[in-house]
Design a protein that fits this description.
Elements: E1 2-6, E2 15-18, E3 24-27, H1 44-51, E4 57-61, H2 73-79, E5 82-86, H3 106-116, E6 123-125, E7 142-146, H4 149-158, E8 167-172, E9 175-179, H5 185-195, H6 197-200, E10 204-206, H7 218-224, E11 228-231, H8 241-247, E12 251-254, H9 255-258, E13 261-265, E14 270-274
Parallel strand pairs: 3-4, 4-5, 5-6, 9-10, 10-11, 11-12
Antiparallel strand pairs: 1-2, 1-13, 2-3, 7-8, 8-9, 13-14
Helix pairs in contact: 2-3
Length: 278
């Protein structure tokens, strides 16, 4: 059975995946908006403790080095063993003295630097779309659609690291789930060029960059043709309702409206479960 949990973390992103192999995967993490006055958001560490107590994180995938995708990394590393750490090649620098202004923590950035420079544990993995599949992801049927070497170069040149975001396709029992990271329009056009229309087709699509219209490339998205779209969204922010509602004939699930969203896929079951019904 494959379980994909899209967590309601607010403005950031966190997807927890339990593969049929038993591998527990966390794609991005954000606890920057968790506080005692806002009990509607999901703390990723609490979710893991409740649903997967004591399990090692076989792979943590940081789609790109923005703080709303790594906040909580310090706590995760403190509470769990991370076996494989996915990262992209970059030279991003941040002003750690100003992190608190955005609700972020220097401890998360420091932990990130420690993990990405590790020599042995965890195993640091930096892969591109055209790398030969290896045991780190092959058995879980993860296909890497992006980034390419060209996009990584472009991200570092422009200091717009969304260009280098991981875009991943996961498949189980005929159901395909596309995780869009924060991929830019340029990245989507290159994905189509490199992989072709058929490789983009998915049943479930996690909208890139929290559904922002700046990352919508409908000439590419029409080939994804998903039945369902999931948007990791937050209060006070409006995703591109028009584009995504027209793209998904079945339903658009927004975490700010539906809370945690779970996709379960097995031979007998292919179902969404939402924390809230609206």
């Amino acid at each position: 059975m494959l379980k994909v949990h899209f967590l309601n973390v607010g403005k950031g992103n966190c997807v927890v995946i339990k593969f049929p192999s038993g591998h527990l995967t966390v794609v991005d993490i954000d606890n920057s908006q968790i506080d005692e006055e806002n009990d509607t958001l999901q703390d990723p560490i609490e979710f893991l403790n409740s649903n997967y107590p004591g399990e090692s994180v076989f792979r943590f995938i940081l789609t790109h080095p923005d703080m709303d995708h790594m906040s909580g990394l310090h706590e995760l590393h403190k509470n769990r063993t991370i076996v494989n750490f996915w990262d992209i090649e970059h030279a991003k620098k941040v002003d750690v003295d100003k992190m608190g202004l955005g609700g972020y923590s220097k401890a998360d950035w420091d932990t990130y630097q420690k993990l990405r420079s590790a020599k042995e544990s965890p195993t640091v993995i930096r892969v591109l779309h055209d790398h030969i599949p290896k045991s780190y992801w092959k058995e879980d049927r993860i296909k890497i659609l992006s980034p390419s070497a060209e996009l990584i170069k472009h991200a570092n040149k422009t200091e717009e690291y969304n260009h280098g975001s991981y875009v991943l396709m996961i498949e189980h029992e005929g159901i395909r789930v596309l995780l869009g990271g924060d991929a830019t329009k340029e990245a989507w056009r290159e994905i189509l060029k490199n992989h072709g229309k058929a490789a983009l087709k998915a049943d479930v699509f996690l909208a890139p960059h929290h559904g922002s219209p700046d990352n919508v490339e409908m000439d590419v998205f029409k080939h994804i043709a998903p039945q369902y779209v999931v948007v990791s969204d937050h209060r006070g922010h409006s995703y591109d309702y028009s584009s995504y509602n027209s793209l998904a004939p079945e339903k658009v699930y927004s975490t700010k409206h539906y809370g945690n969203i779970e996709l379960t896929v097995s031979k007998a079951t292919k179902a969404f479960t939402a924390e809230k019904n609206i």
